[in-house]
Amino acid sequence: MDEVIARMSAGEFYDPASPSLVAARRATAGWLLRLAAAAADAPEPRRALLAERLADIGEGAEIRAPFHCDYGFNIRLGARVFLNFGCVILDVAPVTIGEGAQLGPGAKLIAADHPRDPERRRAGLEFGRPVTIGANAWIGAGAIILPGVTVGEDAIVAAGAVVTRDVAPGATVLGVPARPG
User: 52, 80, 97, 158 — which has fewest CB within 10 A?
Assistant: First the structure.
């Protein structure tokens, strides 16, 4: 693995304009176009296509197009994961979605983050923090899960919620910012 990609994936500061990252995003853009064009009623070819780019894809996992991600190679999907139309995953750091988890239309998982220090931001540096969605969790339509957040097993994130903190297993959160409900 390229040194810059390894640093990025490990959550260290990196320059997104690095040639290796630009090339990786370009390759992912081509892959996403092929994925969008693949027939939804042909599960085996789509599965093979998903396996080309994703770190791991469990049996029966499904992604409905359109789908957007930065790289793909930091995304792990458990068995029977379902991502509905328009999901976005910014996967500069690992994004893991547990078995049977479901993401509603337009849900966003954001591992990409930016320095709080203005000098580092001016320098164009970025970093990421992993996002983890537990088994059988349900992420509602349009919900946003921010960098470093873990949503526990069997948890529910209401539609439109913005999740800034970890969600306990079995909990339901809603609102902006998301709070137990």
Answer: 52
**Rounded Cα distance, 176 and 152, in Å:** 19
Over residues 49-58, the pLDDT tens digits come to 999 999 999 9
What domains are there in the chain, each with its CATH number? 3-180 (2.160.10.10)
At 70-110, the pLDDT tens digits run 999 999 999 999 999 999 999 999 999 999 999 999 999 99
Question: Residue 58: CB partners within 8 Å, gap ≥ 6?
Answer: 77, 78, 79, 80, 81, 99
Question: 26, 34, 114, 121: which one is catalytic?
Answer: 114
| Whether residue 41 has pLDDT greater than 80 | no
Active site residue 114: yes
Is residue 88 within 8 Å of 69, Cβ to Cβ? Answer: yes
